[in-house]
Structure formats: C-alpha cells, structure tokens
Design brief:
CATH architecture: 3-Layer(aba) Sandwich
CATH class: Alpha Beta
Largest sheet: 6 strands, mixed
Number of domains: 1
CATH topology: Rossmann fold
CATH superfamily: P-loop containing nucleotide triphosphate hydrolases
Order of helices and strands: EHEEHEHHEHEH
Number of helices: 6
Strand order of the largest sheet: 2-3-1-4-5-6
Helix content: 25-40%
Strand content: 25-35%
C-alpha cells in the first residue's frame, strides 16, 4: 500500500519566466502561447505517483505573481507551503540573478526554509540562451538544491521538476 501525501508547493520567480506555463504543462499537459500575467496568485491540483518513494502525492501548486508590485499580496499565499520550484528564464540573466531574492522572500514569509528545486526554463530557446547549464548547476549546488532544465513549450523535464520536488518533500517528512 503506497503512502499518501498532500503538499502545497509554490512557484517562485520573476514575471514571465514561465511559472504559469510550467504549472499548466504539469497539471493539464497543455501549453498556451499567449502570455497572461498572473494577478496575485492562481493554483492547480494534481495527483502524482512517485514510484521511487512508493508514494502518491496530491500537489496543490500555487502560481504566485512575479511582478514586484504583488509582493505584499504574495505574503499570505506562502502559508503552508512545503516546497517550491525556483524558476528562471535561461534567456534573461536578470531572472537568474533575482533567484536569491525569491528564496529570501519565501523563507522570510514562512519563517523557515523549505525544499526548493532550481528550474532553468525555456531551454527550447537555445539560440537565445544566456545563462549556461554550468551556472545554473553551480547556483543550485551553492544553495543545496537540485537542478532541472525544462521547457514548458515542449514539456521536456517538466514532470521531472515536480517529481524531484515531491521526492525531496517526502524525504523531509519521513526523515523526522
């Protein structure tokens, strides 16, 4: 009999890095090429089987608005989060540089650290890539996180990013 878990996770990162697209690809296996700015937050739910942990996870994925002006609104949406995806756009260095600010905001809002997976999104735009795989991996290693490169457009490694986070969250709960 597999273990059952329920986790709230947050999508963290600047506006237009692909948080909504990743959430849609993961929960509905759909990609919408029309950019729609998230106002405040949105959420979706998906049940995930995690064979490596003999577990089933119901994930409540909270997609938080990335624009600075929504910072005050975001604070309450962190409550109860057990993990997060720290997302940047490989074609925009500023989104990579801002990852520390996102980590800090989440940890401060929760008054504790949560497991994070660093996600380099939009790898399908290889010709426009500015942030290298090595830089992304080094950053993830430095903050003690795992690293996944993904494309919400093609679906490449999207499931892997969320499943990796599930594994880490399960481990953090079962190790106690």
């Amino acid at each position: 009999m597999p273990s059952e878990f329920r986790f709230k996770v947050v999508m963290l990162g600047d506006g237009a890095v692909g948080k909504t697209a990743l959430t849609l690809r993961f929960t509905q296996d759909h990609f919408d090429s029309d950019y729609k700015r998230t106002i405040g937050s949105d959420f979706a739910i998906k049940r995930v089987e995690v064979p490596s942990r003999k577990a089933s996870v119901t994930m409540q994925v909270w997609d938080l608005a990335g624009q600075q002006r929504f910072e005050v609104v975001r604070q309450s949406f962190y409550r109860g989060a057990r993990g997060g995806l720290l997302v940047f756009d490989v074609t925009r260095r500023r989104t990579f540089i801002n990852l520390d600010r996102w980590r800090e905001e989440a940890f401060n809002s929760l008054n504790r650290e949560i497991p994070l997976v660093v996600v380099a999104n939009k790898i399908d735009l290889a010709d426009s890539r500015i942030v290298s795989t090595e830089e992304g991996r080094e950053y993830a290693d430095r903050i003690g996180s795992l690293y996944v490169e993904s494309s919400a457009l093609t679906g490449e490694n999207v499931e892997e990013a969320f499943t990796t986070l599930c594994e880490i969250m399960i481990d953090s709960v079962t190790e106690k």
